[in-house]
Specification:
Oligomer: single chain
Number of strands: 16
Strand order of the largest sheet: 12-9-13-16-14-15
Distance between the termini: 55 Å
Bound molecules: zinc ion
Largest sheet: 6 strands, mixed
Number of helices: 10
Strand content: 25-35%
Shape: elongated
Helix content: 25-40%
Structural class: alpha/beta
Order of helices and strands: HEHEEEEEEEHEEEHEHEEHHEHEHH
CATH architecture of the largest domain: 3-Layer(aba) Sandwich
């Protein structure tokens, strides 16, 4: 009995000694006025204060500042369920968070509009007879027209942003070539590009109709971080950085998709069906290294809807709705400094 009491006293003494070299994570977050996001898959935490982020991994002898700079520090550990930060590491974190933020603003630098198909590839294409006249409705023409209206409106609203069309006439561009146009636009650390691909639907069911907005399935992995930009010492952290970027883009894409869907619903929800948000592995947006979505404007295979898609008034209505959604997203992203505040 006496022995075990001695042992417990000894153990408490040891823990006190050990713990005086460490700060418990929750107390540290309170002291810093920071928050943390935890990634269970990677056993990785992100400390967030204003626009700054620090990534750490339990047991790893480094932390990463703003997804870019790796600093070697004594590893953060987990003991009896508590996460403990070594004093030396805590000092580095404090110093980084307390310096004036380098990012005082965040902006959407470019909006890329991608009208699907074109040239030899018409996409969905149907010919209807109306009052003895034959009317051909091709997806490539519908999406080009909406894209042009959208381009005009966005260029007017945002003279300081790059607004780009992947094609502005009836030409063919490969699926890989499209996101490349967006990936090539240079951006700074505090700038984003958004990518919007426009398509029209077709179905064997001639009654199918309505609009839907797609985003890339979160489990699809893209190579978002250029390995060449990192030296050998940094290579071990690439998968972590990549996953974090991936999560950020997915999150932003979902918000963008939702803003556009809501706006389409408000504008034409009473005229056709709202088929909702969808998740997929679309090739067209798969290679875009940015928040990217795909809009299906309506069904060319449905006669009534195809004739609407051939109607300038309806196409303008569609463009206006997409424009409203893009503006609402852009405003939110910029105001919240990329949802970090
Ligand atoms: Zn298409």
């Amino acid at each position: 009995m006496k022995k075990s009491i001695c042992f417990i006293v000894f153990l408490c003494f040891c823990l006190t000694v050990v713990n005086s070299d460490y700060i418990e994570l929750r107390a540290f977050l309170d002291e810093l006025d920071a928050v943390m996001e935890w990634d269970y898959m990677l056993d990785t935490g992100v400390l967030i204060k204003n626009t700054d982020r620090i990534v750490f991994k339990i047991g790893a002898p480094w932390i990463i500042l703003n997804y870019h700079k790796k600093v070697n520090t004594p590893g953060i550990i987990r003991q009896q369920g508590a996460v403990l930060i070594p004093q030396q590491t805590a000092e580095v974190i404090k110093e980084f968070f307390n310096k004036p933020s380098q990012i005082s603003y965040y902006r959407v630098a470019a909006i890329v509009i991608d009208p699907g198909h074109g040239g030899k590839d018409p996409g969905a294409c149907y010919t209807y007879s109306v009052g003895g006249k034959s009317i051909k409705v091709a997806e490539k023409d519908v999406v080009l027209q909406v894209s042009k209206y959208l381009y005009e409106m966005l260029s007017k609203k945002y003279p300081n942003k790059i607004i780009k069309l992947t094609r502005d006439n009836d030409t063919f561009i490969s699926l890989e070539g499209r996101p490349e146009i967006a990936n090539k636009i240079p951006t700074k650390a505090n700038e984003a590009i958004i990518y919007i691909s426009l398509h029209a639907n077709a179905s064997a069911n001639k009654k199918a109709r309505g609009f839907e907005v797609w985003y890339l399935t979160p489990t699809h992995r893209r190579e978002l971080i250029e390995p060449a930009a990192y030296d050998d010492e940094h290579k071990e952290i690439l998968p972590i950085l990549n996953t974090m970027k991936e999560e950020e883009y997915t999150w932003e894409s979902v918000i963008l998709a939702k803003d556009i869907l809501d706006s389409l619903n408000a504008s034409i929800g009473n005229m056709t069906e709202n088929r909702g948000l969808k998740e997929g592995r679309w090739v067209v947006v798969r290679k875009a290294k940015m928040p990217s979505i795909l809009i299906e404007l309506g069904f060319v295979s449905n006669k009534e809807e195809a004739l609407e898609l051939n109607n300038e008034y309806y196409l303008k209505k569609l463009s206006q709705a997409i424009y409203n959604g893009v503006c609402s997203f852009t405003e939110k992203l910029e105001k919240s400094k990329a949802f970090m505040e």
